[in-house]
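Model: Ready when you are.
Researcher: Fold this.
Model:
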Amino acid sequence: MPEGGLLAIFAHPDDETFGLGGTMARYAARGIPVTMLCATRGEVGEISPGTGATPDTLGRFREEELRVAMAMLGVTDVRMMGFRDSGMMGTPENDDERALMKAHPDAVTHMIVRQIRELRPAVVATWDESGGYGHPDHVAVHHHATAAFHAAGDASRYPTAGEPWQPERLFYTAIPIKEFMRLMEEMRAASGEVPSVAEDDNAMAELRRVEPNCIIDVGDLVAVKEQAMLAHRTQISDMDPFMNLPEASRNRFFGKEYFYQAHPALPADTMLDDLFA
C-alpha cells in the first residue's frame, strides 16, 4: 500500500464519520491513502428500532455499517482490532474480560504499532484526552494511539511489530465545547431532546480538552457526510435529534472539522487548514 497517507484510529463504528468524515472523504478523493482502524465493533451501543439488530448481533451489524459508511466517503481500507465495546463508565460491560478497557496497554499499543509500520502513514488522527464525551473506550484509544505514534519509529520498541516507521504528524479531534453546547441548545429548541451522552452539560464541560489549531472546511461535503452518518443506522436515523436540526445549523456544525496537532508542537496562535500542510 502506498505510504504517506492518513490513519484514523477510533473506538467504535460511527466515531470517525461524526468527527472527521468530511476530511477523510476529501483526502480519499485526492488519491491520498486513508485507513480506518476501529478498536471495537460497538457491541454495547443503542439499537434503533426496525434495524433487525439484537444485542447478540449488534457488533456484526455495526461493522457492516462502518464499511458501508466508509465506502460512501471513498475509504476502502477498514480494519478491526477485535476488542469488545466496554460500554459507558460504571456499567457491567466494563468488567467483560474481552473489553478494550480491560486489555493490557502494551498489547493494544503493539497492535497499533504494527498497523502504523505496515501502512507507513504521514498522519495519524485519533480522539483527544476527553474522548469527546468521556467514553472509556474513546479515552483508551487516545492513550494507546498516542503511545503507538511515538513508539512506531523506535526500533528498540515492539521489535516483532515490523520495520520502524515514524509518522510525521499526530492530530486529535477537537470539537470546541462551546460549539458543541451551542448545537445542543439548538437541538433542544428544534426537537426538545439531545443525545443521551450530552444530557449532563456540566460533566461534558469539565472534561480535559484541547483547543483546535487546525480547522478544515468540509462544507461542500456535508451531504455525503450526513449520508455516511445515516449508514450507521442502528445508531442514528433520520428522526435523530441531529437530523432534525435546521439545515443551517447542520451545515454550520458538520461543515467544519476541528483538530489539534499534538506532534510536532505548533507555535502559539498558529491555525492550519490541512492535516498535510
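Researcher: Now this one.
Model:
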Amino acid sequence: MIDVTRPIAELARAVQSGELTARQLVEACLAAIETKSSYHAVLELNAAALGQADAVDTRIVAGESVGVLAGVPFIAKDNFLTLGGHTTAASHILKPFEAPYQSTAIAKLEAAGAIMVAKANMDAFGHGSSTENSDFGPTKNPVDPTMVPGGSSGGPAAAVALGLCSFAVATDTGGSIRQPASFSGVVGLKPTYGLVSRYGVVAMASSTDTIGPLTRSVADAALVLDVMSGQDPADATTIERQAEPYTTTWRSGKAKIGLIKEYLGEGIDPEVKAATLAAVARFRAAGLDVEEVSLPSLDLALACYYIIVPAEISSNLSRYDGIKYGYSAPEAKTLAETYDLTRSQGFGAEAKRRILIGTYVLSSGYYDAYYKKAQAVRTLLIQDFTKAFETYGVLIGPTSPITAFPLGQKAHDPLAMYLADLCTVAVSLVGAPAISIPSGHTKAGLPIGLQLIAAQQDERRLLAAADAAEALLQDRVVA
C-alpha cells in the first residue's frame, strides 16, 4: 500500500529515484478520497491530476529536473483559483464559476512538481469556525465524525489528518488554518502577512488574508512555505522572502519564550489549559526559559477583529452582483432585481450577517464610533506584540480556547462560534507569523493545539521553535 503521509521530502526523493511514481501517489489519494468520502472533506476532484502525474513521471524517465515536490499530491482549499475545474469558495453564488487563470501559490507548487488532486470544503467565503457554513454541507472531524473539524479550512485540515493527501494549502484570515489544525490534530502555519501571494485567491478580508500550509509535521510546513513564498508582481502586498531556504539552519540558540497570560484566563477550556501548561512544563524540564507575559490589549482583539473584518468583507463581496460572473438569478427582470435576488439567493446566512455588520460600521455616523476606533485598537495590539518581542523570541499559548465541538451545537449561535477564534485573531490583525502544532488530547481523545507566534518576517525562528517543541512533545530527538 502506498503511504502518502510519509514526509514530503522523502516522498519526492522516492519519486525522483524511481522507488515510487507520481501516478501511484495520485491514485492512492484518489482511492483514499473515495473510501473516506463520508467525511465530506473534498468538494471536487482534479480531473487533470493523473495526466499531470504521468507528465512528471515522463520527465523523470527522461532525466529532466522535476522540482523539490516531485509527484507529491496535495489538496487546495476551494477558494484558490485553479484551471480545469470549479472554484466555488463553498458558496452557491460561485457554484458555476470556472477560473480563467491560476493562483500564484498553486502555480508555484505545480512548478515544483506537486500535483493538486482535489479542492477541499470550507466555510463559504471563509466565514466560520466549523465548516458548517459551507453551502454544500459540513465536513466531519477526522478523529470523531460527530464533531466539527474547525474552520474555515476544515476540509483541508481533515484531508491531511485522514491521509487523503500529503499536504494541503489554505487561507488564514483570523485563524482559519491554525484553529482547524488544532481541532483536527495536524500542523497549521500562518506566515507573515504578504509572504505568500494572495493573487488568484477569493478574498475575504484583504488586510489579514494569508496563505499557508496544513501538514503532518513542522518540517513539511517549512518545505511547502519555501516553495510558495516570495514577492509576486501580481500582488502589491507581497514582501521579499529570506534568501536562505526556510528548511535549513533552524537552530539559533535558546530564545526566551513568553507564555501569554491572557490566553490562559476566562473562557479557556480546563483541558486545553492543562495541555498547554503540561507542554510548558516539558519545555522548562528541557532547559528552555519560559515565563508569563501580559499583552493588555488582547482582551479587545476579538471585538476589534469582528469590526474590521466584516467591513472588508462587505466591500469585497460587493462584486458578486449577478452580472460579472457566478450565479445570476434567472427570474430577475430588472437590474435592481438582479442585484437583490442574486445576493439573497446566492449568499448564505453568515455572509449576509457579515455584509450587514460591515456596511453598518462603515456607514456615515458609525464609522468613527466603530471602524476608526477598531483600527486604533489594532495599533495598540501591534505595539503590545512589538514590545513583547523585544524580550521574547517566541510567544506561546493555546491555539483555540476549546476543542472540537459537536456538529450543530453552535450553528445558530454566531457569538459562541466567534469565540472559537479568541486566541488566533490578534496575530492576524498584527500580521505576525504563527503555527499550531498538536500538543495532546482531551480525555475523550480530541486533539488540542499549541500556538507559537514570532515577530513579523521571523519565520526561521518560529519554525526552529516549533520543530523543537514538536520534538519534545513527541519525544523525538531534534536533529
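Researcher: Key takeaway?
Model: The radius of gyration is 21 Å.
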